[in-house]
């Protein structure tokens, strides 16, 4: 009996092998040699499209890949400023801050959105977006650096990934295996563009952003001063959400600045900053 079972198993294995080879051969004949690479690419896309991601232990490379997809989707909904000088300026500030972010091992991409609304946001994988309206609203480079540092703080704290995971659980689409890649990207876009950050995440990003200003050498008052300016204006921008209240965030930031750092002046030259903006815009 065992011999018959073993014989049957061998026959099934040979049958599967022959069937697989036959299928592959037919594919080669139909597609032709020049199309093999293209067929392989489509097969990879199909596999990737159904990929399940375990968000609780995602690697940096997986996050970078998801971030790149999310960025492509975001860029279909916003308009980037096509001015290398402006983008380069924001990137130089951002890369200085990244070195003191506590998470400089991933690649960061800083992009300027052509929009006069005062806003800034970030998504997983190191992607930061700064509106032209934010640049124009800032009084000096230290204030702009504070906003950029805050957004880097969201990435360093992996807030986007945590929010996607929480959202997937709340929507009932997270399984033991994980979440489908396409759903992660969809949620990442929605969270970046339309939904406010949590109270805890905003405080954490403020703390991280302030730490970056201190370590990089910028005047640490840049971030709270910019937020205070917007709080007293007629309309608060999207990134000053009511969770938590912006005035409470300003107070917390001011108490976190060590007395020995309060007299720093790097980035506070308003006339130099305004001249830079005139050259750009």
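^ structure tokens above, recovered residues below v
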């Amino acid at each position: 009996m065992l011999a018959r079972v073993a014989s049957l198993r061998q026959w099934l294995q040979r049958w599967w092998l022959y069937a697989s080879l036959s299928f592959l051969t037919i594919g080669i004949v139909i597609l032709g040699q020049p199309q093999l690479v293209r067929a392989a690419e489509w097969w990879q896309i199909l596999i990737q499209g159904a990929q399940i991601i375990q968000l609780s232990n995602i690697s940096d490379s997986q996050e970078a890949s998801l971030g790149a997809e999310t960025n492509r989707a975001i860029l279909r909904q916003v308009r980037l400023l096509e001015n290398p000088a402006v983008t380069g300026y924001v990137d130089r500030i951002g890369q200085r801050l990244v070195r003191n972010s506590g998470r400089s091992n991933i690649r960061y991409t800083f992009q300027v959105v052509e929009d006069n609304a005062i806003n800034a946001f970030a998504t997983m994988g190191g992607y930061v977006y700064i509106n032209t309206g934010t640049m124009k609203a800032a009084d000096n480079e230290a204030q702009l650096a504070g906003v950029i540092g805050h957004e880097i703080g969201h990435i360093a704290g992996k807030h986007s990934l945590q929010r996607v995971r929480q959202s997937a659980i709340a929507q009932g689409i997270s399984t033991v295996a994980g979440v489908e890649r396409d759903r992660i990207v969809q949620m990442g876009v929605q969270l970046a563009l339309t939904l406010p950050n949590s109270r805890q995440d905003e405080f954490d990003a403020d703390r991280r952003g302030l730490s970056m200003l201190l370590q990089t050498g910028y005047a640490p008052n840049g971030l709270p001063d910019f937020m205070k300016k917007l709080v007293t204006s007629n309309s608060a921008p999207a990134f000053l959400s009511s969770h938590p209240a912006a005035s409470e965030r300003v107070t917390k930031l001011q108490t976190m600045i060590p007395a020995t750092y309060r007299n720093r002046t790097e980035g506070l030259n308003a006339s130099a900053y305004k001249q830079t903006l005139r050259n750009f815009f």
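The longest helix spans residues 2-31.
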